[in-house]
Amino acid sequence: MDNDKPLQPETEDEIEIEPVQQSSDKMLYCEAEPPPTVEKVKPARENSETDLEIEDDEKFFTTGQKELYLEACKLVGVVPVSYFIRNMEESYVNLNHHGLGPRGTKAIAIALVSNTAVTKLELEDNCIMEEGVLSLVEMLQENYYLQEMNISNNHLGLEGARIISDFFERNSSSVWSLELSGNDFKEESAALLGQALSTNYRIKKLDLSHNQFSDVGGEHLGQMLAINVGLTSLDLSWNNFHTRGAVALCNGLRGNVTLAKLDLSMNGLGNEVALALGEVLRLNSCLVYLDISGNDIGNEGASKISKGLESNESLRVLKLFLNPINMDGAILLILAIKRNPKSRMEELDISNVLVSEQFMKTLDGVYAVHPQLDVVFKAVQGLSAKKTIFLLTNPMKLIQRLNSLDFVLPPLEWRECLCGAKGLLEAWRAHRNHPGMHLCQA
């Protein structure tokens, strides 16, 4: 307690502003906020604090967390980030786009070693490089409170992947969610990450999107999926997987028992991979969310996927947006869901497909069997915008989707069409039986 006494007379402003004034001419800035902001904003924040908040701040001073960070900044030669100083006791800290660099990241890591408040940390686009990620990994060996971390778009490359893979193999951190999007990971990185994740059971959510994995990387990650028992969510969108790599991923998914959410959108899967995806849907019993948008899957691929939907009992969301599927493929998909009495499908996204009124009649029959289902499509061919609004989606979900339609009705049209949520279902049924009738008439 004696060591804490010199800290009591100091104010927060004195502690924060003094290092900035000393270092402003010599040190590399690692923050987006100019120093004057601290002087203007801080007093306003203090004036609005309750007695309880002030009491908590006094406790915070006794821990020396701010002083530790300021000393770390002096040690590595960077200007302190005022936002970080103000939010060190918050559970969520967003330092995206602050230009920290490796040294600024090291100072943050030093301050977080003994921090027990921060549970989610955002460090996207800070050019932290492999030196910065090494500092973070060393910090995570001591900090068991941080649970979610975003270090996307930081040019980590192969050496960064090596450091993270070593971290995965230790299984010694409390981090369960890690975002690594856009870090220039290629085939060698996929091999390292795949091997490390094969034995890792702590990481539950992993984002590897916007990297440069191709078919060889898909094979490494597919082997990992076959034996991984930790991942529940994996984002592999915007990579370069084609037939061989995507089939390898599907082979790994067949026996996977934990992955619930998979994003493979914006790759190059094609119709050939759709056959393997159909097999995954037939055999896998834990996948709940599958996004394969933008993968050059046509009616042939939709036919193969529909075979899996006929027996799948776990999938709830299937996104096929931006694929060259027309109404014939869409009908195959919804009929497959109809034929499966145990289907749990809640959303089928084919929102670029222009359908007909005949399709809507078929969809009515599907809704009768699976009232929880919502099929999202572009519009109804040959119908006016006013009529399309009633047929676009499941009536129970119509109100939720009114603001997301791809056409806009003038305010007067809205008043004419909407008679209120209370009688919406009855009005919709009347309109379906008498298409020429306005909703307000129903």
TrEMBL record:
Residues 1-24 are annotated as: Disordered. It holds the Pfam family LRR_6. PANTHER family: LEUCINE RICH REPEAT FAMILY PROTEIN, LEUCINE-RICH REPEAT-CONTAINING PROTEIN 74A. This is Leucine rich repeat containing 74A. It comes from Pongo abelii (Sumatran orangutan).
